[in-house]
Amino acid sequence: MSRLILLWTALSLAVPAAAADRTDNKTTARAASVSEVEAIHAEMIAFGEWMIRLDAATADAITVFRELGPAWNAALSGPPETMEARFRPTMAQIDGAIATARARLAALDTPTFPRLELPADTEPARLRDDMQKMIGSMEGITRTLPGVMTAIRARNPGATQQAMVKMLDATRALFRAQAAMAAAWVATTEADDPTGQSLQFELLFYKSGVRLLESVERTSLGKPDPGFGGELRALADQIDQVVAAGNKLVDAQRAEFTGVREDLAGEKDPDSVSSRAMADKVLAMSGLQHEGFTVSQRYAAQLRRTADALGTGRVSMTVLAPMIDSLRATRSELDALGMRIAQVMAGTR
User: Fold this and answer.
1) How many angstroms separate the Cα of 330 from the Cα of each of 1, 118, 300, 318, 320?
2) What is the mean pLDDT of each run of 10 residues along the chain (349 residues)?
3) What is the pLDDT of residue 10?
4) Rounded Cα gap, residues 75 and 98, in angstroms
5) What is the 3-state secondary structure of the chain?
6) Which of 134, 119, 139, 244 is nearest to 180 (CA)?
7) Cα–Cα distance for residue pair 1/206, rounded to 1 Å
8) Which residues lie below 8 Å from residue 333, measured CB to CB, with a gap of 6+?
9) Residue 271 and residue 22: Cα distance in Å, rounded?
10) Measuring CA to CA, how many Å separate 189 from each of 135, 196, 200?
11) The whole model's pTM is what?
């Protein structure tokens, strides 16, 4: 979702200028049969269609990977001797989905969209490379699971603990990589850009995931984690600040583009039609960004509930489980919003 937000920010910068050009020169004939405004709009649609293809390339792998936790817990529920047999179908499904994603990404085209002036991180070639790296990280996590199952079957607590720590390390590395990318994206935005606030949440979200996994590891090793509750409250406070600032900026942007839309009302020349269509899309996508901030608020609330449940007592998986579920659900909701943004851009929504 982060990069989709970045690209429509680039687009939004073009719409007021195009609209101003049109309203200031209402009697000026176009010098070319296809205007620059129409060309920008065409690239916007094409980019949205490409993002939908990118999502389709990885969707099955991501879906299966997100179900890994529940499937793992189900496999753990029976006798250790038969755990591998219970989990084998899931592993086969994951292996197949990852192989399919790799093949689809390798075959995916990487067009350029010069008129959109996309940030380097949102160019199709870079997006495809990053998705390939993410699939590789997911595969790295799944490769740690057989060692865990072997140790559990052998009823070897020490080996089981070591294998579990290795699995958590691999998962934490994925979250750290995502946090690093989010931090890099934040640096590309201006202070008055609501995109920056959405990206700030992404950064805080992944930081919370890294911290959660650290606490899970401490719990599995029987170690205390006395500072966890306070850190969760601090993260929740930061998220609330991001949401408040982001909603304010989105409202200002919506007012601006509503004005652009009104200025072009009734105009029928191609420039105005394209400018109005782009303004409509920016307005629709800003509404989705509001929805994203609502998702962010819910996640902050869960962080506080987890902190309250921790109190001054010992961290346990029972206390951490709701946050783990919320982490997974929040990521799914944000990814679904990202796909809706791509559909708006492509004109299919």
Assistant:
1) 12, 27, 10, 19, 15
2) 46 43 39 65 85 88 83 84 88 93 96 84 85 88 86 84 81 81 70 82 92 89 88 97 94 87 83 82 86 95 95 81 91 86 78
3) 43
4) 21
5) CHHHHHHHHHHHHHHHHHHHHHHHCCCCCCCCCCCHHHHHHHHHHHHHHHHHHHHHHHHHHHHHHHCHHHHHHHHHCCCHHHHHHHHHHHHHHHHHHHHHHHHHHHHCCCCCCHHHCCCHHHCHHHHHHHHHHHHHHHHHHHCCHHHHHHHHHCCCHHHHHHHHHHHHHHHHHHHHHHHHHHHHHHCCCCCCCHHHHHHHHHHHHHHHHHHHHHHHHHHHCCCCCCCHHHHHHHHHHHHHHHHHHHHHHHHHHHHHHHHHHHHCCCCCCHHHHHHHHHHHHHHHHHHHHHHHHHHHHHHHHHHHHHHHHHCCCCCCHHHHHHHHHHHHHHHHHHHHHHHHHHHHHHCCC
6) 134
7) 14
8) 295
9) 7
10) 27, 5, 10
11) 0.76
The one-letter code for the residue type at 148 is V
Tokens of 289: 């960004």
Dihedral of CA atoms 18, 19, 21, 23 in degrees, nearest 10, equals 160
Q: Kindly state the tokens that stand for 141.
A: 């996590």
Q: Which amino acid is at 251?
A: D
Please tell me the distance from the alpha carbon of residue 230 to that of residue 307, in angstroms, as a whole number: 7
Taking CA 136 as the corner, what is the angle to CA 133 and CA 139, rounded to the nearest 5 degrees?
Answer: 155
Rounded Cα distance, 221 and 124, in Å: 42
239, 298, 324 from 329: Cα distances, Å: 17, 11, 9
What's the half-sphere exposure (Cβ side, CA atoms, 13 Å) at 325?
Answer: 11
Q: What is the pLDDT of residue 313?
A: 66
**Beta carbons of 323 and 303 less than 8 angstroms apart:** yes
Q: In angstroms, how far is CA 3 from the centroid of its own chain?
A: 8
